[in-house]
């Protein structure tokens, strides 16, 4: 999941390639009815069921692109048997769902929650992966809104969620250094940055309360994702494996980060890249 253009489809194809190299099977299901092309093989494609263009062209429906997407997703929620048939029964399935970017799907519409419940009924273990573009995260205000988007998905879906900052390869060394503080944020120090520019006292107070809430509950952390760096892809994969206990029947593995110092791996990532 993640806002439009945050790198969801790229994440799926990067993971497929990465896992292929590890000799591990990963399947992808495209759940974006407006998707045009993607660079990974699909196990199932929602467009076989319904397409946004067809909904928009329908004389009796007359939806625009966003209403059309919502209609498609609701239609999908009423036809989960299509998904069941497409998923089949493969041993040790690891399936990525490439979701649409519209935030309303994760905030107040029931469809994604229904999908999660359906998958759980079919005995899948589900982990949310929420992507945010690092390019937009170099300022504290944008960061706070990114955090709130991730948080609303987390709260509405009620599943474990891994938050990821994508496109790290596009950042300059200086920006990388700058963004380090956003990965495991100390919200209280960020409050100072962001509230200085606020004139309204009430707005200042609200921003402080939101930052305080996020910090007190330690709810949101981000992992860096650089598609050109195998180590960063591996860290993300390990976290997700640990969350869903993937392969626990075969061999129990904790993510490296839990064994070592909590932030050692993330620090190491930055060390390597800033020193280059
Ligand atoms: N350099 C770089 N570019 C990336 C990365 N991830 C995505 N992009 C680029 O960002 C653009 C959007 O990526 P997508 O993967 O299509 O994003 P998306 O979230 O699937 O977008 P929608 O499905 O339209 O919501 C594409 O041009 C990608 O090539 C990354 O890690 N590094
Ligand atoms: Mg996409």
From TrEMBL:
Q: Which residues form a coiled coil?
A: none
Query: What are the UniProt keywords, alphabetically?
Result: GTP-binding, Hydrolase, Nucleotide-binding
Task: Give GO MF terms, alphabetically.
Answer: GTP binding; hydrolase activity
Q: Which Pfam families match?
A: ATP_bind_1
> Taxonomically, which superkingdom?
Eukaryota
| Xref: InterPro entries | Gpn (IPR004130), Gpn3 (IPR030228), P-loop_NTPase (IPR027417)
> Gene3D superfamilies attached here?
P-loop containing nucleotide triphosphate hydrolases (3.40.50.300)
Keyword Chloroplast in record: no
Q: Which PANTHER family match?
A: GPN-LOOP GTPASE 3, XPA-BINDING PROTEIN 1-RELATED
The record's family statement is: Belongs to the GPN-loop GTPase family.
Subunit structure, interactors included: Binds to RNA polymerase II (RNAPII).
The entry's function note states:
Small GTPase required for proper localization of RNA polymerase II (RNAPII). May act at an RNAP assembly step prior to nuclear import. Small GTPase required for proper nuclear import of RNA polymerase II and III (RNAPII and RNAPIII). May act at an RNAP assembly step prior to nuclear import.
- Name the chain's protein: GPN-loop GTPase 3
